Amino acid sequence: MTTVTKEHKTKSGVVTSDKMDQTVTVMIERKIKHPLYKKYIKKSTKIHAHDPDNKCQQGDLVKIAECRPISKTKSWKVVEIVESTK
After folding, report:
1. How many structural domains compose the chain?
2. Is residue 5 part of a domain?
3. Can you tell me the distance from the alpha carbon of 28 to that of 15, in angstroms, rounded to the nearest whole number?
4. In its UniProt record, which GO terms are filed under biological process (predicted)?
5. For the whole model, what pTM was predicted?
6. Residue 28 lies in a domain
7. Of the residues 24, 61, 67, 70, which has the maximum number of CB atoms within 10 A of its CB?
8. What CATH number is attached to the domain comprising 64?
């Protein structure tokens, strides 16, 4: 039998809130094209991500990866801090 490793989805976004313990809120922005008017529109999604060491601060650019559900709203974890605000 062969074992298959699954690639986890990764996204990058900006930390909008770090007030919770071991949790950060990450805003991910993307641009979509309107089907009729052909104009690009910004859409954003807020995701709760697990930050076990509480290293992330508000305004940091982070990379997050999908993981097993940690709580009711958390199923992403912080992989790395790409750019810090310090």
Report:
1. 1
2. no
3. 9
4. translation
5. 0.86
6. yes
7. 24
8. 2.40.50.140
